[in-house]
């Protein structure tokens, strides 16, 4: 390379640099005098090169206190991350300005959506027509009023769980996993799962495991450097490609297989298939559409999202509640007193939904104490926005710190203590009711705005009846060691994208022979 060529390259480089600096200064001038929300200082030019490790919600909360702002900002190598640490900020931006805060980022989802194949999920799709159609279809099937027609299926699966629990109490965690998956398969596809080795549940659990791992911030370098997705799987260090290949197979099975099974059964005898989401979508949306192929893609996404998101959500709520009952035994005594008073020797059902406020308080406190997700799935801002005289740039990733909001001591006194009674009060005539002045955690735990979890009513109602039924018929106690000393769970959690208690021991047994009989006799109602 000669001197003339070097001089030419130097001139070209200088000119390019000047153009970039000019455009950057012009952009900054247009944005003046607004600055970004406060946050920890990063490295010059590149900002922060990594995000906090789990539990990151604590770090974000502490930064919020340190910088005196419920909205904090980080520059992640050119990508703006904005964390909202208060309900007010979430309401102002994600609810009231949802028209510009309802997109999903592509940054951080390369492994899950592109390599593992979950790009079909409308919940992860960017703001647009297909996402809107998926959201509309999902809400049409599982809005609060629509849940009435799914309640018989929920009751049937929960009673099956109770019978399994009676037959083999030691396997209570397995029974819960089976029930949470069975609930979704029944409501979405009218498929009864097998008690052992069910292929749908096995594949679904593999797909859920993929979500847990890939949605954990910083788990895969390809999410930070997306060009790595082109690296072949035989290349040194490309083990993520082999993982993705196995997960992709499960993701596509969840998307296609159960839907196709329902479609095949409907082609033979539609009347033989019980009420379910897929049957309704095929009859009322796919078969009547101008573009059936497109609408079938939407319908498959709706049903698939129900499984991979719904079963894990319900399981997390119930597991947290059982852990809390072991750690706070007075809660169980109080709940059983109210259930016994209302049910009078029978198992609870949805006719008791408004008559058991203590059980509602128990579910609410489970959602508050350790919500299903400490941080919500990120939103993306699609336009420059000014909030409290601070600039939130277009393209910013916006995250709600759900755990911090639900542990705000100004709203929930002694937030680390499990106390369902914080949601209750007595009327002047002595009636126990839910206190309308205490914020309902479900309005935070399930997300905000147009991206709020559309399956929240099913998740909540499933958890409510499961917890009420367990407490009506069973007693939850500490397990004991070989010396007879009670084993106290650590109360620790695994902090992935979804939050679950670390494995713990407890004993669940029928309260009496009469209660065991109540459970066994549920089989006589035809719930085989």
From TrEMBL:
Matches recorded under PANTHER family: P450, PUTATIVE (EUROFUNG)-RELATED (PTHR46300:SF7), P450, PUTATIVE (EUROFUNG)-RELATED-RELATED (PTHR46300)
Pathway participation: Secondary metabolite biosynthesis
Keywords from the UniProt entry: Heme, Iron, Membrane, Metal-binding, Monooxygenase, Oxidoreductase, Transmembrane, Transmembrane helix
KW Transmembrane (keyword) present: yes
GO MF terms held by the record: heme binding; iron ion binding; monooxygenase activity; oxidoreductase activity, acting on paired donors, with incorporation or reduction of molecular oxygen
Signal sequence, renumbered to the chain: none
Major subcellular location class: membrane
Family under the similarity heading: Belongs to the cytochrome P450 family.
Binding site for heme: 453
Cellular compartments per GO CC: membrane
Subcellular location: Membrane
Superkingdom, natural source: Eukaryota
Source organism (scientific name): Phanerochaete carnosa (strain HHB-10118-sp)
Record's bilayer topology term: Single-pass membrane protein
Protein name: Cytochrome P450
Keyword Metal-binding: yes
Pfam family, one: p450
Listed cofactors: heme
